[in-house]
Amino acid sequence: MQTRTLGRTGIEVSAISLGTEYLINLPQEHVDGVIHYAIEKGINYFDLFYGLPDFRDILGRSFRGYRDRVHLTAHLGAIVENGQYGLSRDPQLALQYFEDYLRRYHTDYVDVLFLHNSDGQQDYDTLMAPGGLLELAQRLQREGKARAIGFSGHTASTARQAAESGAIDVVMFPINLAANAVPGKRELFQACAAHDVALVAMKPFAGGKLLQAESRMALEIYQSGGDPMELEKRGAVTPVQCLHYVLSQVGVSTVVPGCKSIAELDQALAYWEADDAARDFSELLVAFAQYETGACVYCNHCLPCPSVIDIGQVNRLLDMATTELTPALRAAYAALPASGADCIQCGACEARCPFGVAVIDRMEQAAALFA
Ligand code: SF4
Ligand code: SF4
């Protein structure tokens, strides 16, 4: 299992992690089997947002004896209403659910405490205002009950504000092939990179819709304003392709696919054994017609380069440095075996890039910026 650093928290997390929502309503032995298998395979980050007491009890038993090997998240504002998932902005209620979480998971702290599922400016303002959930999270952090504070949501504009606020260490956001062209996404990623805020990618399979066999399907994706827009899927996609897209994006620390069985977990973990051809998503993204012409998606479909430049990585570092050129980005660029300055302008990559990226110009820009 490859690990990545969770932004400025410094926590090392497995690049592929586990979302637990699909384990709901399954028996203890089954949940134990999936959780223990995941840990055995090197997964060390688990997203736990459901507040249902029975489900917490089952997962709490599964994690017993493993707490020092795993990073667990909690979500302030996720509650239970009429026996189902619900959302609240009441700090008192959120605190009750958090204390219940600590009891049922047999722990006295969480690794990342998320402000849960915020979409739209009004809700963001409520969360961040004095007396809101951010203030509660900061108090819990001071008390040693939370190592880091996160923000989860589907709206790029408010997720970006969270990343720029200085108060948020981790942003959890839907990242998948179908949502490649969501307005504001690129700026969000750049803001996270500039502030060393980790990105946790949720919904890598778009809620499973990307994996379904239907050749045409509407996907509901949130735009920066929170309104849904319809996209079309025009072909079958594999979990490996989905994960490769997500793990190739700027600033992603970990991806949390929801898997309800060991078989599904194995389909995700097959990523590590897959070759470049099996991972390649570039033609698929073009088929979705949901990409911005000229914007690199870091797929490396344009290789090989005679100067052995890792074109996707140079473009990724250039995009990250556009907002702020940090020492870490400088060091990552300096460590590349070949850089933008090595480009001999042969044009082979531009002929192969399905996305119309002006690679030669980009290599020149990188050489100038990182000089
Ligand atoms: S330049 Fe094109 S082919 Fe190369 S990594 Fe970027 S998007 Fe992919
Ligand atoms: S144009 Fe530059 S980056 Fe592209 S393949 Fe040729 S040498 Fe490599």
In short:
The protein has 371 residues and is of the alpha/beta class. The chain is built from 15 helices and 14 strands. The protein is globular.
Describe what you observe in this structure.
The protein has 371 residues and is of the alpha/beta class. It has two domains: 3-277, TIM Barrel; 311-369, no CATH class. It has 15 helices and 14 strands. The strands form four sheets. It has an eight-stranded parallel beta sheet. The model is unreliable at 220-228 (pLDDT under 50). It binds iron/sulfur cluster (2 copies). One iron/sulfur cluster (SF4) binds next to helix 12.
Identify the notable features of this structure and list them briefly.
15 helices; TIM Barrel; globular; binds iron/sulfur cluster; alpha/beta
